[in-house]
Design goal:
Length: 507
């Protein structure tokens, strides 16, 4: 089984060969928004719960006891504990206490997540207009899917008995509570079944609809991370990401994780889970998520805004941006997302709208691309979809459409796309030098910004960064003293091979 980040993709060796130390002194600190200034947790979260990533040798019982908490479960691979406070303290106070421990990498609220759906009445003519718009029929002349690819639907579950999904749905798992339990991924809410139908409902079976990757050989892996009310927590989603990545690699296949859901707080646990999935199986997993439906410019909706996630916005039948679809610097592509007709539980069908509906169009297309190009890495699959998208809005990439509306017909033909993305590995150390896990790390280039924390050994890895020169900063409070450092980082378009630098923090 692949280990996290594929042993940092031999990053340590790269760093030893190409260290570029930075040691600019600064009075400022760089913080992640897990606990906003003032000490109150603003984004919706599970009351009385905290997610905490501990060092490998930490006593989990001692960490929980320090804040009067019990361990509800653990997200494997990334050693994140889900704690419930039983002593009456506040989440903010518990986070402060935990962040001060040497055996804790970080602590944060357990944010809530919701299905990213806008209910509506069926009004658009042509029930499968989205597939026509993206040229799916032409793509099917090349491939309709392959047995080597799986689409994981992290959602409210999937109705495996639906006649338009019959035989395609794997047993899956239920990760609403920890640990994930194999099976139990049925869908009473309907959202996950609708998403699954768009991504991969059966074709040529004489009934209902057809999905983007309709071949019966391309299976759907349901991972239930939202309840039957369409709600869940980041703990369950992070656990589901890890479980799905392990399951796909364990089957010896390539896989696309679709998340038509999200919430409003930055979560390092969720970021760590995404990073684990991206590194699993040497680039065998691509993560796709919905931009969110808050009608916002620069709408920050997680996991879509996390480093490494391919974020999908919603377009309509006229190739216009749908009004509710968030925009932002992290958007990858647009896809049909208004009045999308698809499967719902009980053998029925319905129109739904939302970036939830756009995301599975992208996930299904990724499955087609991987079927046509089985040797591609996740970097190449994503870039192939972006490079062949129909350019909308301002020329080239823009904050409303990303690289444009996806084009299935163009994505499954031609050759390997020109490389565009790279990976950055940052070793954070304090003057000494001593590796510093749990440091806040931020990389910026112009308005582009990505954040994460350094893990065990002081490494921070940021996937899917556009090639270019970045400014990297790191900060941490050590023994009551704020440490800060900066360095320049050149990211090459080498896909999963990480460019490396070191940031040395000083008081």
């Amino acid at each position: 089984m692949a280990q996290p980040q594929q042993a940092l993709r031999v990053v340590f060796t790269l760093l030893l060969a190409t260290l570029v130390a930075g040691c600019s002194i600064g009075a400022q600190t760089v913080g992640l928004p897990g606990l906003p200034p003032g000490g109150t947790v603003v984004a919706p979260h599970v009351p009385g719960e905290v997610l905490v990533r501990v060092m490998p040798a930490a006593s989990k019982a001692e960490v929980a006891s320090a804040v009067g908490a019990v361990v509800l479960g653990e997200i494997p691979r990334i050693t994140v504990l889900r704690l419930r406070l039983v002593g009456g303290g506040s989440v903010a106070d518990a986070i402060r206490t935990l962040q001060g421990r040497a055996d804790v990498l970080y602590a944060e609220p357990n944010y809530l997540a919701f299905a990213s759906l806008v209910p509506n009445d069926p009004a658009y003519p042509g029930k499968l207009w989205g597939l026509v718009k993206i040229g799916a029929a032409s793509a099917w002349d090349t491939t309709s899917g392959a047995s080597t690819v799986v689409v994981a639907v992290l959602d409210t579950g999937v109705d495996a008995a639906h006649p338009d999904l019959g035989g395609k749905v794997l047993p899956g798992a239920n990760c609403v509570t920890l640990p994930c339990v194999p099976g139990g991924a049925g869908d009473a809410y309907g959202h996950g079944t609708h998403v699954a139908g768009t991504a991969g409902a059966l074709g040529n079976n004489g009934i209902g609809i057809v999905g983007v990757a309709f071949n019966s050989a391309t299976q759907i892996l349901p991972v239930k991370v939202l309840s039957d009310a369409g709600e869940g927590s980041f703990a369950g989603i992070a656990a589901g990401i890890v479980w799905a990545a392990d399951a796909i690699v364990g089957m010896g296949k390539k896989g696309v994780l679709n998340m038509s859901l999200g919430g409003f707080g930055y979560s390092q646990a969720l970021q760590d889970a995404v990073a684990y999935a991206i590194g699993a199986g040497q680039g065998s997993v691509l993560v796709v998520a919905a931009m969110g439906n808050e009608f916002k410019r620069y709408g920050i909706f997680y996991p879509a805004a996390l480093t490494g996630v391919m974020a999908a916005g919603a377009t309509d039948g006229n190739d216009a941006k749908v009004d509710f679809s968030n925009t932002g610097l992290h958007i990858s592509v647009g896809a049909p997302g208004r009045d999308v007709y698809s499967t719902i539980p009980g053998g029925s069908y319905a129109y739904y709208s939302g970036t939830s509906m756009a995301s599975p169009h992208v996930a299904g297309l990724a499955a087609l691309v991987w079927s046509a190009f089985p040797g591609f890495s996740n970097y190449q699959v994503r870039r192939k979809i972006e490079a062949t998208a129909a350019d909308l809005g301002a020329p080239g990439w823009d904050e409303s459409f990303g690289w444009g509306r996806i084009s299935a017909a163009a994505a499954v033909v031609g050759g390997t796309p020109a490389p565009y993305y790279g990976c950055a590995a940052v070793l954070v150390q304090a003057a000494g030098p001593t590796p510093q896990p749990g440091s806040d790390v931020v990389v910026t280039s112009g308005t582009f910004r990505r954040t994460t924390k350094s893990g065990p050994g002081g490494f921070a890895v940021l996937d899917f960064l556009p090639a270019g020169t970045y400014s990297g900063t790191a900060s941490k409070v050590i023994g009551g003293t704020a440490y800060y450092g900066t360095a320049s980082l050149l990211v090459a378009a080498t896909g999963p091979s990480c460019s490396g630098t070191t940031i040395t923090m000083v008081p």
